[in-house]
Amino acid sequence: MSSHKAGVTGVAERYATALYELAEDRGALDQVSADLRSLKAMLDESGDLRRVIASPVIGRDDQRKALTALAEKAGFHEIVRNFLGVVAAKHRSFAVPGMIGAFLERLAARRGEVTARIVSATALTSAQKSALTTALNKATGNTVTIDASVDPALLGGMVVRVGSRMVDSSLSTKLKRLQLAMKGVG
Q1: 136 touches 166 (CB < 8 A)
Q2: Please, what is the Cα angle at 115 between 110 and 119, to 5 degrees?
Q3: Where are the beta strands (DSSP E) in the chain?
Q4: Which of 50, 63, 167, 62 is closest to 98 using CA atoms?
Q5: Of 33, 36, 63, 151, which residue is the least packed, with the fewest Cβ within 10 Å?
Q6: Do 8 and 97 fall within a single domain?
Q7: Which of 173, 3, 17, 42 is nearest to 103 (CA)?
Q8: Phi, psi of 47 (to 5 degrees)
Q9: Domain range spanning residue 31?
Q10: DSSP state of 186
Q11: pLDDT digits (tens, 9 = 90+) for 124-158
């Protein structure tokens, strides 16, 4: 299974690199990155869309039609529309989320930005995101971009990852620690 995951990462990296270089050559990095962020949000919000791109049962042509129609309707840049068509035609739609992530990471590295992956029990408000961004900018000394997601299993609190550092202040982790401490006493 790990070799499959490594393959997905390799595919995602190669496609993201090609997209990045094309967007850079055409001076469209900002528009392409904005479109990819929009696509990421769509994927995060729509289970149906995630199933369409991940399903091996749905044919290449149907995936291509779905992705290009979505890109057209969303008003994505020509580079993104063509890219999604090629990805679907090559039957690599399953790797689109990884491609988006790899592209955005490459762009952030070029701009000297760091991405903080924040998983919280509930969706963060704009004020919370702003406060976290300010605190993380100060703590890291870099410009921090927040990639927020929700995992209700955390029960409360959040997990923040910046590079190789992680701070877990989730309620589920605190309860697990308490449970372990109580077992040690008894």
Answers
A1: no
A2: 160
A3: 113-120, 143-150, 158-162, 165-168
A4: 50
A5: 151
A6: yes
A7: 17
A8: -65, -35
A9: 2-108
A10: -
A11: 999 999 999 999 999 988 889 888 899 999 999 99
My answer on whether 6 and 75 are in the same domain is yes
| 97 and 131 part of one domain | no
Q: Given the structure tokens 């790899």, which residue do they identify? A: 102
Enter the pTM of the model.
0.69
- Numbers of helices and strands, H then E, in the chain: 8, 4
Can you say how many angstroms the Cα of residue 148 is from the centroid of all Cα atoms in its chain? 9
DSSP 141: S
* Shared domain check, 14 and 92: yes
Q: Which of 104, 38, 101, 45 is nearest to 71 (CA)?
A: 38
171 and 157 inside one domain: yes
Domain endpoint, select from 108, 135, 151: 108
Question: pLDDT for 9-33, tens place per residue?
Answer: 789 999 999 999 999 999 999 999 9
